[in-house]
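TA notes, week 10

Several of you asked for a full example with nothing omitted. So below is the full record: structure tokens for the whole chain, then the designed sequence directly under it. When grading your own attempts, check the secondary structure regions first.
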């Protein structure tokens, strides 16, 4: 983003880049776990759920890249180190069900992650409201996607 584009973001850019880095890191963490789940889920329903988790992994990867683009526009870079990313994501320890055919156990983990993302983007949307319209719009957009995904997981739990 050029000079004017940066000027109109009326928030401390360091702070903003830090907040966006947390979102980027979290998206990567979810991308990793969804991709892993897609590869390890087993049992009769594995083909269906493997595909669901694979799509989710791709979606979260797309989110990470949209956040990275915004970080670049603000003159920053996403975190370089993977171990730093896990810390930044702030989600804590993830435990998948020991029984790899327990598809609902997997879904419960991803539902929690969606809820974490909803809080994260809701917060970011509120803090950027009227101050940085571009980040605000990105946060709103990602928020609405995470809300839709939360509902999809809730529906899967009811199956
Ligand atoms: Fe996401």
């Amino acid at each position: 983003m050029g000079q004017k584009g940066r000027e109109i973001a009326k928030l401390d850019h360091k702070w903003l880049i830090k907040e966006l880095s947390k979102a980027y890191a979290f998206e990567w963490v979810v991308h990793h776990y969804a991709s892993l789940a897609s590869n390890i889920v087993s049992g009769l329903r594995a083909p269906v759920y493997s595909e669901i988790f694979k799509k989710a992994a791709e979606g979260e990867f797309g989110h990470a890249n949209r956040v990275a683009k915004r970080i670049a526009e603000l003159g920053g870079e996403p975190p370089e180190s993977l171990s730093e990313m896990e810390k930044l994501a702030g989600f804590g320890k993830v435990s998948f069900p020991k029984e790899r055919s327990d598809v609902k156990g997997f879904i419960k983990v991803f539902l929690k992650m969606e809820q974490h993302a909803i809080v994260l983007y809701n917060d970011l949307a509120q803090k950027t409201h009227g101050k940085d319209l571009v980040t605000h719009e990105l946060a709103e957009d990602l928020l609405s996607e995470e809300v839709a995904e939360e509902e999809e997981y809730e529906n899967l739990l009811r199956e």
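The chain has six helices and no strands. Use that as a sanity check on your answer.
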